[in-house]
Amino acid sequence: MKSSLFSPLSSKAYRRFYVGQLFSDLGNWIDFTILTVLIIYEWGLDESSMALFVIVYGLPWIVISPFASVFVDRWSRKKVLMMTSFLRIFVIIGYIVAPHFYVLLILVFFKGLLASLFDPARQASIRSLVHESELSQGITLTQISLNSMKIVGPSLGGVLVASFNSDIAFVIEAFCFVLTTIMLIFVDIPEQNDSTKLNQFQNNKKFKKELQEGIKHIFNSPILSTAIISSALSLFIVFLCDGLLVILSKQIGFNEAAFGLLISLVGLGSVINSFVFGQLSLWKTKPLTVMAVNFSLTGITIMIMGLGGAHYLQLPSIIYYLCAFLLGAMSSGQNLPYGYVLQIETPNEKMGRVSSVAQSLQMMMMLLAPSIGAFMAKAFGVGNVFTLSGILCILAASSYLIFLRKNNLEVQYDQRAKKQSV
């Protein structure tokens, strides 16, 4: 029997878990906005300080997360989720009393570390709380939470700072994590194995060996390694121009309000397409192909924006708005199949390590690409960077599709999807 997008929410445990992650995602996106305002507007620091903040924000995901993920797989997922949510409350309180920028950076790093532990535990918990026949719906709902909070969080953060001040906004953010912690208290997250035996077994193993198991699992699964590498490559190419969108917007004559609408449409496209994907099941038979097609369409959309920004094409404003919406939609068109492959191809007892290694690679690409993109923009112009990024997306996606056809990687998903639809 087919299940609807919201079928997982019929489970009381998953419903509480989902509400908890909604508040967590909201807090995270309020956080980024408030910190940006604090650094640039209230403290009056420059672009180099902002760049350092972004690097420190993402550094724990690259440097520490893969190693810390060993403990995520050892410990109770519920305890990891609760403790990382609870401790973030005190980090946010630290933001309020931070005397200067460098103390703030230490707190930002620690909060990033807690987030890098929370997310793998969240990924593993979805598998524990949702039946495999509803796994794609559970992943889709998580993606909807992330994408909808990307819209609500920055807007709410901006309103709070404008109406009150950053301190009040931080208090509201801390309250989000209070609610997350409370919701998680009442969630019973079953472990896939007997926890006592599992801990005794894993604690006797060497830390290095456990970490290597997660990495080896990725490379021993051609489907999983292909999905992770293609996702990282996609993020690298897209992020070559992602940070330049505000400059492109200015060059084509958009004011601040128009740019805000552009960003909102990206989030809206992502949320709407997540709902659409949640109602469909065909993409589960060939998730890697769906990723590649969306990657290619992303390239076409970016190239159109670049050609307009470089004035090779004269495009009306509505085309840029449509492109922004499509970019959001195609982003979820890549993220949902990727999340599905990650869950299906990874044993639950290794989910923390595997997802952390994957996120580490993705975050590395996301931090490296903007610097290269900024250098290219100075040399060739912003519009040309968008155009080049679009062409690279199309070439990479085409090569990816050829690789999939040549190696016939997705046959097993046809059978699995048919079983889930029965």
Give a short overview:
It contains 17 helices and no strands. By secondary structure, the protein is mainly α. The model has no long low-confidence stretch (mean pLDDT 84).
What share of the residues does DSSP label as strand, in percent? under 5%
Helix and strand sequence: HHHHHHHHHHHHHHHHH
* Helix share bin: over 70%
Write down how many β-strands occur, each being a DSSP E stretch of 2 or more residues. 0
**Mean pLDDT across every amino acid position:** 84
Please write the CATH class name of the largest domain. Mainly Alpha
Q: How does CATH name the architecture of the largest domain?
A: Up-down Bundle
Biggest sheet statistics: none
CATH superfamily of the largest domain: MFS general substrate transporter like domains
Amino- and carboxy-terminal Cα gap = 5 Å
Q: Under CATH, the topology of the largest domain is which?
A: Growth Hormone, Chain: A
Report Rg. Answer: 21 Å
Number of helical segments with 4 or more residues:
17
What's the domain count? 2
Organism: Bacillus changyiensis
Subcellular location: Cell membrane
Pfam families: MFS_1
Protein name: MFS transporter
